[in-house]
Amino acid sequence: MEICVSRILIIDDDYQIRLALRKRLEMSGYIVEEAMDGLRGIETFRHSPADLVVTDIVMPGMHGLDVIKTLRSECPDIPQSWHYLEPV
User: Which domain holds residue 4?
Assistant: First the structure.
């Protein structure tokens, strides 16, 4: 029986968040790529398309929603789910 492994791209300017997500996802058998900002995330996706992109929204340089719009315009079939929490 062949096991299908999904590729996940994490885009976040916080190293600790990227590290924690990477470790947990790799322990679950996923192939994980990461980028420290939106522009690098888009370039990483173009070089090695992911099945799922997990992105921060508020990042320096390129806002996460702009990353999502760019990726959706280049790959309209990529699944999308996002949530935004405002500070209280």
Answer: 1-9+19-29+37-44
